[in-house]
């Protein structure tokens, strides 16, 4: 009797494992059927669980050696809301140091956050090309060695395009070109944070 109970239990476990595997089956299996992988559904048409629609990644920004020295990071969490729509949030931090004798020794800490939306506009003509819009809030802190300190923030809407080269269903290389609608040549803060109204990013998610 005990052997029969063990056999029934093993059968139930195997059945549940197969059912779970069918539910979370990677859509890239569709390639065996000659079709592109779905981003939000299993090959059987079931919605993918929330966790399998998430993408994690980011990029490196403000990278300069020498004088000034600058280095930053920008983590990203994105969600595949539909087959063509991606929404996400991101953060950024950049450290910049100007040194003597060419500059007054000064340290800049720039950090911020952003929310973004990407929509694949014409997949039948140019796949993986997204309309991109976001709101970014940036704060910069300036400290002169042995002298004054300064802190200010700026919120900017940015619009443009992102081309994403998929590496897998949940990861890709993204080249983004944006225009800052809030940029003003007469604003010293905008020039310090952005340099110019165009923002170019290389990110991975």
Automatic annotation (TrEMBL):
<keyword id="KW-0732">Signal</keyword>
<feature type="region of interest" description="Disordered">
    <location>
        <begin position="24"/>
        <end position="51"/>
    </location>
</feature>
<protein>
    <recommendedName>
        <fullName>Outer membrane protein beta-barrel domain-containing protein</fullName>
    </recommendedName>
</protein>
<feature type="compositionally biased region" description="Basic and acidic residues">
    <location>
        <begin position="28"/>
        <end position="38"/>
    </location>
</feature>
<feature type="signal peptide">
    <location>
        <begin position="1"/>
        <end position="21"/>
    </location>
</feature>
């Amino acid at each position: 009797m005990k052997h029969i109970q063990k056999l029934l239990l093993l059968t139930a476990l195997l059945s549940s494992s197969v059912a779970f595997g069918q539910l979370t089956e990677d859509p890239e299996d569709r390639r065996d059927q000659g079709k592109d992988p779905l981003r939000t559904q299993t090959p059987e048409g079931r919605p993918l669980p929330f966790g399998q629609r998430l993408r994690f990644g980011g990029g490196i920004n403000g990278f300069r050696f020498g004088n000034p020295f600058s280095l930053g990071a920008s983590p990203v969490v994105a969600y595949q809301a539909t087959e063509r729509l991606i929404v996400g949030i991101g953060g950024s931090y950049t450290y910049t140091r100007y040194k003597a004798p060419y500059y007054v020794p000064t340290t800049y800490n720039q950090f911020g956050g952003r929310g973004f939306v990407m929509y694949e506009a014409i997949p039948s003509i140019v796949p993986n090309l997204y309309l991109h819009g976001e709101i970014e809030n940036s704060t910069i802190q300036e400290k002169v060695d042995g002298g004054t300190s300064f802190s200010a923030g700026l919120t900017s809407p940015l619009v443009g395009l992102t081309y994403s080269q998929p590496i897998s269903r949940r990861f890709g290389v993204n080249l983004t070109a944006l225009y800052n609608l809030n940029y003003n040549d007469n604003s010293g803060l905008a020039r310090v944070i952005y340099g110019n109204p165009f923002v170019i990013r290389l990110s991975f998610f």
